[in-house]
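Working notes for the structural subgroup meeting. M.R. asked for a predicted model of this chain before we commit to crystallization trials. I am recording the input and output together here so anyone reviewing the notebook later can reproduce the run.

Input as submitted:
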Amino acid sequence: MEAAAVASPGSGLRYLPPINPAQKRQRSRSATAGAFATTRRQPRAAVACRRPHRVEAAAAARDSGGSGDSSHCSGGVRSRKRLAVFVSGGGSNFRSIHEATAAGGKASSGDMVALVTDKPGCGGAEYARRSGIPVVLFPRSKSAPEGVPTAQLLNALRDLRVDFVLLAGYLKLIPSELVQAYPRSVLNIHPSLLPAFGGKGYYGLKVHKAVIASGARYSGPTVHFVDEQFDTGRTLAQRVVPVLADDTPEQLAARVLHEEHHVYVEAVAALCEDRIVWREDGVPLIRTQTNPDAYA
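Returned structure, recorded in token form:
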């Protein structure tokens, strides 16, 4: 079984042995050290739409020879994007994205390079260890003294040359320092049609219970960019599912989760392929793979 990794002072990552469920309170530390070359991440340039529903950035990039990122250039070599995922639970969306980054998958332009969690024994962390993905424990707390503070987390992400951060069932508020370090580069998925049924306290079955109690006829997942608040960032993609008259929260949750696995993978693929553009009013759009003037 692969080892978990947590950031240590300096630029490296220090590895911890896999967690034995019967001995979670007595985690032993390993002295094995890994070194990563430090590369400062440059902010990604925004692409503005000249008209509300039409983007000419692709043509401009071709005419000017690119915008500093070869993956924007038609015919250029597209670099693979490096992804870090944050989870607190079973991590089914994390698994879907990881499978999609495999050769031939829908998000095959990305590589999963780190799993960040506040619960080292959760299903998502165990899956990451089995898959050989470093696990970073964050944040540091009384119950998790081996966790890393924000500054060390950011250093670890930079050392791993992370391009994008994906939240997949991570229940803690992301520190503003991380949001500022990765502008327009942090995505989250929420199990309702935001802005409805979002914000602090709305997670898991609580969301679906509230949807059913409200009498809403439709629900579904929302993929959105992350800002300093819970569930208030710009919406990138949504899927709609019906709310049936005799639905239980568990039944509705299952239908929404099925759509989550599809819409999040598609959004991550667009992110890795540089197909997300921004209108002048700050709304993100996803270009289709076949037509740069059409939007998904």
